Automatic annotation (TrEMBL):
Transmembrane segment boundaries: 12-33, 45-63, 84-105, 125-144
Protein name: TRAP transporter small permease protein
Primary residence: membrane
GO cellular component terms, semicolon-separated: plasma membrane
Record note on quaternary structure: The complex comprises the extracytoplasmic solute receptor protein and the two transmembrane proteins.
Keywords (A to Z) from UniProt: Cell inner membrane, Cell membrane, Membrane, Transmembrane, Transmembrane helix, Transport
Organism expressing this protein natively: Vreelandella rituensis
Coiled coil: none
Amino acid sequence: MKQLPDARVERWLGSLALIIIAVISLGNVVTRYITGGSFSFTEEFSVFLLVVLTFAGASVALRRNRHIRIGFLERALPEGPRRGLIVFQALCVGTVLGLVTWFGAKLAWQEYHWESLSAGLGLPQWWYIIWLPLLSAAMLVRLVQQTRARLNGSLDDEP
């Protein structure tokens, strides 16, 4: 089996988000232990970075065909209907991701236009929201790659 392109950008982004979460959380724990107070920005940044980590990880899992699903029906079907089921699955997932991308971009634009600020730190809200449509669009790209690889047989359905 040939080596398939991987979701390198998303892997790096997810790793970076996880490292930053760990560092700011550790810093917050140490600061709280020593001073009795905590950093005010850690919760807002941690939640934002967890969303980035989740979408980046989902994109990697999508590309590597590691999402949880029940493959019983796929394995039971002959080749023709099986390929149709793979296309149907991709269309359903693509529709959901397309909606997330569209409405996420619309929300980010509205937050930019209205100049909304975050409640905790007063940063522009669109800085956080723009990652939603960007990473869901990346997932759409990975979905197309995964579907093509599954249809041409270069990606196993079972790990």
